[in-house]
């Protein structure tokens, strides 16, 4: 590998600017997810999605539920609004109860 290839390989890594915006996502979870799952996420129209209630989920499975929703239920797919990494951030946030 020459020097140019090396530089290109490094610039292909995710840029800091492309990382999920924690504040905006936290707000989205409280407001948008909260409109169905309750302001404190302990349940409403949708079930409790606090960490203890989701402990059987792996991060990737939870991310898929967020991106694709649960067909046949009011749980909508968020793919049109969230990137893969943003959904991953939310999955981690829901599982741990903290900003990842
Ligand atoms: C329009 C209402 C609505 C909104 C908005 C909504 N959900 Fe849901 N969600 C539901 C319902 C209803 C279910 C239960 C579906 C079922 O019967 O399995 C659900 C299920 C889930 C589950 C599966 C829970 C479990 O115990 O398996 C997760 C995780 C979840 N929602 C996360 C989210 C997240 C994260 C957001 C915001 C990005 C969100 N939901 C927004 C209605 C909603």
Model regions low in confidence, pLDDT < 50 over at least 5 residues: 1-15
Q: Estimate the global geometry from the Cα principal axes.
A: globular
CATH level 3 topology: Cytochrome Bc1 Complex, Chain D, domain 2
SS class: mainly alpha
How many alpha or pi helices? Answer: 4
Bound molecules: heme C
- Secondary-structure element order, N to C: HHHH
Average pLDDT = 87
Beta-strand residue fraction: under 5%
Overall helicity: 40-55%
- CA distance, first residue to last residue: 35 Å
Q: Mind telling me the CATH superfamily name?
A: Cytochrome c-like domain
Number of domains: 1
Question: What is the level-2 CATH architecture name?
Answer: Orthogonal Bundle
Main sheet?
none
Total beta strand runs: 0
Whole-angstrom Rg: 16 Å
Question: What is the class in the CATH system?
Answer: Mainly Alpha
Protein name: Cytochrome c-551
Pfam family, one: Cytochrome_CBB3
GO molecular function: electron transfer activity; heme binding; metal ion binding
Organism: Roseovarius litorisediminis
What does this structure look like?
The chain has 100 residues and is an all-alpha fold. It has one domain (18-96): Cytochrome Bc1 Complex, Chain D, domain 2 (Orthogonal Bundle). It is built from four helices and no strands. It has helices at 3-11, 22-37, 59-68, 84-96. Helix 2 crosses helix 4 (84-96) and helix 3 (59-68) crosses helix 4 (84-96). Mean pLDDT is 87; it is low at 1-15. The protein binds heme C. Heme C is lined by residues 32-33, 35-37, 45-47, 49, 53-54, 62, 65-66, 70, 73-76, 78, 90.
């Amino acid at each position: 590998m020459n020097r140019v290839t090396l530089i290109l390989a490094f610039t292909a890594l995710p840029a800091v600017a492309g990382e999920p915006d924690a504040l905006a996502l936290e707000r989205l979870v409280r407001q948008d997810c909260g409109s169905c799952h309750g302001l404190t996420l302990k349940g409403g129209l949708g079930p409790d999605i606090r960490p203890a209630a989701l402990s059987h989920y792996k991060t990737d499975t939870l991310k898929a539920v967020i991106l694709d929703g649960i067909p046949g239920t009011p749980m909508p797919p968020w793919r049109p609004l969230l990137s893969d990494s943003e959904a991953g951030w939310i999955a981690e946030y829901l599982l741990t109860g903290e900003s990842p």
